[in-house]
Design a protein that fits this description.
Order of helices and strands: EEEEEHEHEHEHEEEEEE
Strand content: 25-35%
Helix content: 10-25%
Protein name: Flavin reductase (DIM6/NTAB) family NADH-FMN oxidoreductase RutF
Structural class: mainly beta
Bound molecules: flavin mononucleotide
Mean pLDDT: 96
Number of domains: 1
Family: Belongs to the flavoredoxin family.
Number of helices: 4
Keywords: Flavoprotein
InterPro entries: Flavin_Rdtase-like_dom, Flavoredoxin, Split_barrel_FMN-bd
CATH architecture: Roll
Largest sheet: 7 strands, antiparallel
Cofactor: FMN
């Protein structure tokens, strides 16, 4: 086969939505972590995170979370959170990569805390989507120092302008402009490219 070549990439970030995870620190403040290894199945979210992150430590002891989804216009604030950790005892590897300890992630990023409905960590007011939940399971991955967190979604809150007209519980994908990460760089979505046969299924049938 000569249409492809074998490569050995160090990372496999082929493009996923960016999320900002809110978790509860020991002192009751909320830590924020930008991340993009996330997917959803039904009312379950699955997150891939580093085991030594403050977020993983928080979720082990205090299993409540908000998955905040930033829109593309929040890229500056999200990028300010890059290379920061809430873990004062960060690993040598992270220190070598230039990470700094930041206790107040909201202040550092210029974001605003907003009370959540069903969990203790605060939500990010500027993010148009807040997905609240509790940890249902924490799996150690085959690769060391990585965990997969299974989150049972307890509430979903959105800015009203994202809703599909006439459908209070649905999102209009033409109005939702997610921030996407591909190989460590930030992107937005383009326009719809093709009619969708899957979209002929009524969303309510997934309940
Ligand atoms: C856009 C973006 C995406 C990231 N995606 C992930 C990810 O999917 N999983 C992960 O473990 N770290 C990811 N990181 C790195 C974490 O943000 C980083 O480890 C951070 O220090 C964790 O914060 P904490 O220690 O305060 O929890 C990402 C960073 C950025 C800026």
């Amino acid at each position: 086969m000569d249409t492809h070549v074998d490569i050995d990439p160090a990372i496999l970030y082929f493009g996923t939505p960016v999320a900002v995870l809110s978790t509860l620190n020991q002192d009751g403040t909320t830590n924020l972590m930008p991340m993009s290894s996330v997917f959803w199945l039904g009312r379950t979210a699955v997150l891939g995170i580093g085991a030594s992150s403050q977020t993983a430590l928080n979720l082990t002891d205090r299993p409540e979370i908000v998955i905040n989804l930033p829109s593309v216009d929040l890229v500056t604030e999200v990028d300010r959170l890059a290379l920061t950790t809430g873990n004062a005892a960060m690993s040598a590897g992270k220190a070598a990569r230039g990470y700094v300890h930041v206790a107040d992630k909201y202040g550092h990023a210029g974001l605003t805390a907003y009370g959540s409905d069903t969990v203790l960590p605060t939500s990010v007011a500027e993010c148009p989507v807040h997905i609240e939940g509790t940890v249902a399971a924490l799996h150690e991955l085959r690769e060391p120092k990585l965990v997969a967190v299974e989150v049972a979604v307890s509430a979903v809150r959105v800015m009203p302008e994202l809703r599909l007209e006439g459908h209070p519980n649905r999102i209009d994908p033409d109005r939702w402009r997610p921030l996407v990460m591909s190989f460590q760089h930030f992107y937005g979505l383009g326009d719809r490219v093709h009619p969708s046969r899957l979209a002929s299924i009524d969303e309510e049938l997934y309940r």
